[in-house]
Amino acid sequence: MSMRQIRKIKPIIKISQSRRCFNIRELYSIILLGLIVTIGFYLRANHLTQSPPGFYIDEASIGYNAYSILKTGRDEHGVKFPLFFQAFGDYKNPVYIYSLVPLVKMFDLEIATVRLNSAIWGTLGILAMFWMAWEFSKNKVVSLLAAAILAVTPWHLHYSRLGFEAISFPTLLTTAISAFMGWKRTKNNLMGMIACLSLTLAFFSYSTARLWLPLVAGFFVWLYWKQSNNLKHFWPLAAAVLMIGGLLIYGRHSTPDGLTARLNQISIWSDHPGYLEIGHRFWNTFWQHWTIRFLFLSGDPNLRHSSQVNSELLLSLGAISFLGAGIIWNNFKSRQAWKLVLLMIGLFPLAASLTKTDPIATRTLQAVPFFSLAGAVGIRWMGQKLWKSRRFFTAWLIILALTVSLEFGSYYYDLINRYPVRAWNWFDGNVSGLISEEKTVLPDQIHQIYIQGLFFMKADPVKWQTSKQAPFIIKKTDIND
């Protein structure tokens, strides 16, 4: 073999070796992501009927309406395929309920089925977190860290175990952001369609989405307008607006008050105060969300929304999230997209502050992926700084892992074993024992017990819709009878 032939072979060998290394790294990333997602799902699906205890009326309403849609194509009030679901003078959003229908078909109408829907949405949120972190950082370490942080963050984990609609919003929001950034990067129309669909679904996933989505869409128009000041280059956003508008027109016929009814009840201006009072209420609620007590210690004061142990963020990871936010502020000014992360962290109480409430985790849940991404940036930055001294790096990594493990272990043990005792009354823990085929008289002392009766007895939706016939009656009686 001549020297010329040998020289031709050497580059081929180098290329194949680099490809092999690349493929191994890709495989490791996939395995790690799969492990994170699997653990995340287990943490969310473990003992779903034990913690939270009981079954709250909102969960029962969501579950029974999904059952009613499955059996008849109508909600409990007889409205055919409604856009919003009327419940207790309020309206529930459609995404969570319609996504629950196939699960009810597969696993029947059970407590675990309703909550499994949240566990699935929460687990999908971990995957969406990885994708969004990749679109921002183009770094697999940051992406894996962000997914891992989200998987163990109490704020996100708690709502992944409740049969509440709010958990679907952060998943759809992060998916929409990821897909839109991916579409702008690759011009892949599939990405554009995913962005359009995710934005549309997010709008109808939870009430706070109606504030955040226009802000996020406006940010992207501002970000990319100089590059392509032509509306056709924003077709996923335009298509989403058209789809949302079309659905709202459809919804006006079936549930005309569905979009604004809840806001009219709970907004800081609903009782017609003066402008100064509105400003005071907003400012007070906004800063209450920024307290150490809410973010790191006891979290939401409502026991349905938080276990009040190591909540809403783990202190060991939450502190690093603020470090990461500072790093983003200082080092990513030239990469304008990172400003969205800072915006979503800095203004995270915005929607909640427009309502009359204590600090509330439900209406600020959209912030968790951005705190997680900032935390991943912070950990990677610290790792890079300490990498020069392997001894310090190893010690720091061990200390961080032990601290997070102990803090999360304490939180999760309490969530599964002690929280059910504390939160028993908050979830109407005694109701399921009052309802059975033998007990057809339900006490009227429990608020809206009818919906739990419909749920647990799997009342015939047709009979209930047409003539309010149910396999029970509600009357004034002793709750212990």
Main features:
481 residues, mainly alpha, two-stranded antiparallel sheet, two-stranded parallel ribbon, 65% helix, globular
Whole-number count of domains: 2
Give me the strand/helix succession: HHEEHHHHHHHHHHHHHHHHHEHHE
How much beta, percentage-wise? under 5%
Taking pLDDT < 50 over at least 5 consecutive residues as the criterion, the unreliable ranges are none
Secondary-structure content class: mainly alpha
Radius of gyration of CA atoms, rounded to a whole number? 25 Å
Morphology call: globular
Helix content: 55-70%
Largest sheet: 2 strands, antiparallel
Report mean pLDDT, rounded to a whole number. Answer: 90
Q: How many angstroms separate the termini? A: 97 Å
Number of helices: 21
Spatially, the strands of the biggest sheet line up as 1-2
- Find the count of extended strands (DSSP E, 2+ residues): 4
How would you describe this protein?
The strands form 2 sheets. Strands 1-2 form a two-stranded antiparallel sheet. It has a two-stranded parallel ribbon with strand order 3-4. The protein starts with a helix and ends in a 6-residue tail after the last strand. It folds into 2 domains: 48-427, no CATH class; 431-475, no CATH class. α1 (3-45) runs antiparallel to α4 and α2 (57-72) packs across α20. A hairpin with a 2-residue loop joins β1 (85-87) and β2. It has helices at residues 3-45, 57-72, 94-107, 111-137, 140-152, 154-159, 168-186, 189-203, 209-225, 235-254, 261-266, 275-288, 292-297, 315-331, 338-346, 368-386, 390-417, 419-422, 431-434, 449-456, 461-467; strands spanning 85-87, 90-92, 441-443, 473-475. Helices cover 65% and strands 2% of the residues. The model has no long low-confidence stretch (mean pLDDT 90). The protein has 481 residues and is mainly alpha-helical.
